[in-house]
Write a structure and sequence with these properties.
Layout: H1 20-38, E1 43-44, E2 47-55, E3 62-68, E4 70-71, E5 77-80, H2 90-97, E6 103-105, E7 112-118, H3 123-134, H4 137-143, E8 151-156
Antiparallel strand pairs: 1-2, 2-3, 2-6, 4-5, 5-8, 6-7, 7-8
Length: 157
């Protein structure tokens, strides 16, 4: 409801953000992918997948989001905060608001606590080059957005 008691329409949302149907569909698909990762399927569309554990920025509630990852050495993962329309996806906001509650879960393993760090240049540039070489679709996604996608390095605590 709006302040004057009128029902909000489906168009009453921040520009550049997904609508209710899109968010519902995304939640359903995320839950399905989480089940698949836990069942041993760690690839989707040719990309390695993990479950990112975060806590809600406002609620503090536990959240699980499947995300594509890229190796950064032997003991770190790179994730790209793409999607989310004109702003970073919710998982990124949650991760940055509660970095001490972050963990990654790979198939057949328990969640591992990690420390997230958003990369800045020149480290980001190098990581971005490796990511877009491995998955050119990220360069295509980035070219369609006005914001620069954050690249986050996750290292075990």
């Amino acid at each position: 409801m709006t302040a004057d008691g009128q029902a909000e329409s489906s168009t009453d949302r921040k520009q550049g953000t997904p609508g209710k149907l899109s968010r519902w569909f995304q939640r359903k698909m995320n839950a399905r992918m989480v089940r698949k990762i836990r069942g041993g399927k760690d690839h989707m569309m040719g990309m390695d997948m993990l479950i990112l554990h975060t806590a809600g920025k406002q609620s503090g509630l536990a959240r699980e989001t499947p995300v594509a990852w890229f190796a950064d050495g032997r003991d770190a993962w790179l994730v790209v905060a793409s999607g989310g329309g004109g702003q970073s996806p919710d998982w990124h906001a949650n991760l940055m608001a509660n970095p001490d509650r972050a963990a990654v879960e790979l198939p057949g393993r328990d969640p591992l606590p990690v420390t997230p760090r958003v990369l800045a240049d020149p480290g980001r540039e190098d990581a971005w080059r490796r990511i877009t070489t491995a998955q050119p679709r990220y360069a295509k996604y980035q070219s369609k957005s006005d914001r620069v996608y954050p690249v986050v390095r996750l290292t075990p605590r």
